[in-house]
Amino acid sequence: MDNELLSIQQAAALLKVSRPTFNKIRKDQNLPEIIVGKRPRFKKGDLLRILHGGYDLNSEAPAAPPTATLPKTRFEVFSDKTVRSIEIKPNVFDLRNIELLDPYGVLSLLTTIIAKGRDGTKIKLLVDDAIACKYLHSINFFDEVGRFCKNLEWDRSALATVNYINPETLLPIVPIRMKGSERPVAEKLNVLLKQQGFSTAVGQYISWILGELADNALTHSSQLQGDRICYVLATRFVSDSSNCVIVGIADTGIGIQNSLKSQSEHKKLTDERALVEAFRPNVSSWAKEYGRGKGLTDVVKIAKGNNAYFIVASNDLAFLMDFRENNNPHIEKRIPISTAPGTRYGLVLIDNTFKPIPRSEADTFLRNEIKRLGL
Fold it and tell me: What is the pTM of this model?
């Protein structure tokens, strides 16, 4: 347990000091840091030695700068490993050396394994008591894999006595099978966000996004009703005094581009163009008379109005839509963590003032980016 890695927030909580005081302790004690996914982590054993070693935890720390002068927050929290690097042999996944696995990465891994094992193929997971394995166990990852992969092998004894809770987890993995069943999930998340000090606006917008993306996943999966499913997972983190929430959403359907191109109007689009085009208003796999095709545009509206960002991956394609402050809003192609069938989202929202934008502004942004990227 002494080798357990803690974030800055967790380390400060263990020592029962403020973050500014902890930063002073780091400097005074030359506290060793382990960089995980570009973020510093600290061994619990080192912190306990400070806690019991006579260091004056109440020594004066520099005052925190006023909120107005804090530097603009920049984030890059999406997982830094691909599923391909974890799959060391066909259908053998080594989960022991994962360094960073956020909700987008977790659900990408989950849907990949399910896609490979749901037909009865033998799947083997290598686990131990590493932080990543304990985290996956705590959010019901292994239970969800086991629901679909009946020929699953993993060492349950390695985690049988583990009682690990990640304080940053807001929601463990939640499966959604029917339209409307995402509403109580969104309501629960809204309550948890308020308890964590988030503003009401963040919860309201996340509720809206969950509804839109769950509806999109369950409507366009092209699977039998009983096989349709999407997953939700949410985590919080703090950066430069800003509360942030990362929401992962994933399904096991045919992918956005395939769904859109099933409509004759869009069948000649390239896959890349179809994936981005689907976020434009009134673009849908439904016929025009149904008036569909606004939900994904609203995700862009919310992200842009929040100066936030999200990644969307569909089958073997992925794009980052980045609206962070002091960073020209843009779309960039990314290497997908997973190439499994289905769609996966990782959305980061920052607890700051929302400035809603109209759908027309979102559409202008998307059209300009499609042209710039030559899609």
Answer: 0.76
Instruction: Enumerate domains of the chain plus CATH numbers.
Output: 5-62 (1.10.1660), 168-373 (3.30.565)
**Torsions phi, psi of 248, nearest 5?**
-105, 135
Q: Considering just the CA atoms, what is the radius of gyration of the chain in Å?
A: 22
Sorted by sequence, the CB contacts under 8 Å of residue 331 that are 6+ apart come out as 276, 319, 320, 321, 322, 366, 369, 373
- Tokens 């890695």, residue located: 5
Residue 118: phi and psi, rounded to 5, are -75, -15
pLDDT 10s digit of each residue in the chain, 375 long?
Answer: 556 777 887 887 777 777 767 777 777 677 777 776 667 887 777 777 676 554 544 444 333 333 333 333 344 567 767 888 899 999 999 998 787 788 999 999 999 999 999 899 999 999 998 888 999 999 999 999 999 999 999 999 999 888 888 888 888 999 988 777 778 888 888 888 777 777 777 777 777 778 777 777 776 655 555 567 889 999 887 766 677 888 899 998 888 898 888 888 888 999 999 999 999 988 866 445 444 445 688 889 888 888 888 999 999 999 999 988 766 899 999 988 999 999 999 988 877 767 778 889 999 999 999 999 999
Query: H-helix or E-strand containing 153?
Result: strand 152-154
